């Protein structure tokens, strides 16, 4: 159980199959995404234990996160062996992840097999939306948990049994903190923000944006009605992650979605 966020377990539901996936870990606010080396995100080291004066706790955090990273590496190898691309979508609640997925599924129909791993604390409402859009989906309910981890994704992949060459889109729990800390075995990470959230989100949540490969600024159809500066938001994102790519889209109207499809559909 997380000492900081209260994660206690997860129920995975997909196509009538229900799996119980244990979720046991500790959090640290400084955890880099393996394979990334972005300014502002730091790995724990033995020296850090000494500086914090609490080596026992930090050693436990290292072991638990190390176990997650090991399983994430196995997930990544399993996906690569089958030519499957997995993308981790992260955002705060209400940024439009599910709407983005619905449109993606409809526009990808017949072009490539797409499956979704849907993460929410409760209900299967989003999974139902994905299913109505024509997608194959597994729902993970985390209860009090604030993010998905590699073990949950491993169980979901077992249930999905995706065909070779598939695209797997993981909709993480709505949260701009903890999902950045846990590698799932994905190829890449996309952070979705909406123009209704505020220009300064990358500065307020730097660990999330430092861990991202792509920032999607969604709901640009609402720009005439809100106080949001796209150029400045992009500047803020690059101040914590100089290499991050930024796209502007409206999942509702379809504006800008071609660039998203080009990015997410890359093998």
CATH topology: Rossmann fold
Mean pLDDT: 84
The share of residues in extended strands comes to 15-25%
Model regions low in confidence, pLDDT < 50 over at least 5 residues:
14-51
Major sheet description:
9 strands, mixed
Distance between the termini: 36 Å
Q: Could you say which overall geometry the principal axes of the C-alpha atoms support?
A: globular
Helix-strand category:
alpha/beta
DSSP summary: helix tally? 9
CATH superfamily, by name, is P-loop containing nucleotide triphosphate hydrolases
Question: Taking Cα atoms only, what radius of gyration do you get, to the nearest Å?
Answer: 18 Å
Name of the CATH architecture: 3-Layer(aba) Sandwich
Total individual domains: 1
Q: Which series of helices and strands comes N to C?
A: EEHHEHEHEHEEHHEHEH
CATH class descriptor: Alpha Beta
**Which bin fits the share of residues in helices?**
25-40%
Throw out a few tags for this protein.
single chain, 267 residues, alpha/beta, Rossmann fold
Quick overview:
With 267 residues, the protein is α/β, with parallel strands linked by helices. Helices cover 35% and strands 19% of the residues. The longest helix has 27 residues, at 55-81.
Description:
- The protein is of the alpha/beta class and 267 residues long.
- It has a single domain (10-21, 73-264), classed as P-loop containing nucleotide triphosphate hydrolases (Rossmann fold, 3-Layer(aba) Sandwich).
- Helices cover 35% and strands 19% of the residues.
- It has 9 helices and 9 strands.
- The protein has helices spanning 46-52, 55-81, 97-108, 125-132, 150-160, 201-204, 206-210, 230-240, 257-264; strands at 10-14, 17-21, 85-91, 114-120, 136-141, 167-171, 188-194, 214-218, 245-248.
- A 9-stranded mixed β-sheet has the order 2-1-5-4-6-3-7-8-9, sandwiched between helices.
- β8 (214-218), α8 and β9 (245-248) form a beta-alpha-beta unit.
- α1 packs antiparallel against α2 (55-81) and α2 (55-81) packs parallel to α5.
- The protein is globular.
- The model is unreliable at 14-51 (pLDDT under 50).
């Amino acid at each position: 159980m997380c000492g900081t966020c209260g994660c206690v377990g997860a129920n995975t539901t997909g196509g009538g199959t229900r799996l119980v996936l244990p979720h046991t870990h500790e959090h640290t606010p400084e955890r880099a995404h393996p394979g990334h080396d972005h300014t502002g995100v730091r790995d724990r080291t033995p020296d850090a234990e000494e500086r914090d004066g609490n080596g026992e706790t930090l050693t436990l955090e290292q072991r638990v996160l190390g176990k997650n990273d090991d399983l994430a590496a196995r997930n990544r190898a399993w996906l690569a062996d089958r030519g499957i691309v997995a993308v981790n979508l992260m955002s705060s609640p209400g940024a439009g992840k599910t709407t983005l997925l619905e449109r993606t599924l409809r526009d990808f129909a017949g072009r490539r097999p797409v499956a979704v791993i849907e993460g929410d604390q409760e209900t299967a409402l989003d999974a139902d939306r994905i299913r109505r859009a024509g997608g194959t989906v597994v729902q993970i309910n985390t209860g009090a948990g604030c993010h998905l981890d590699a073990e949950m994704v491993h169980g979901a992949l077992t249930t999905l049994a995706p065909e070779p060459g598939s695209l797997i889109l993981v909709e993480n729990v709505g949260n701009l903190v903890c999902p950045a800390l846990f590698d799932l075995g994905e190829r890449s990470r996309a952070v979705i923000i909406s123009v209704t959230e505020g220009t300064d989100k990358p500065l307020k949540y730097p660990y999330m944006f430092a861990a991202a490969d792509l920032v999607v600024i969604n709901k640009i159809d609402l720009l005439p009605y809100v106080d949001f500066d796209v150029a400045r938001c992009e500047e803020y994102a690059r101040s914590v992650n100089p290499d991050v790519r930024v796209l502007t889209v409206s999942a509702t109207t379809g504006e800008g979605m071609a660039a998203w499809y080009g990015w997410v559909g890359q093998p």
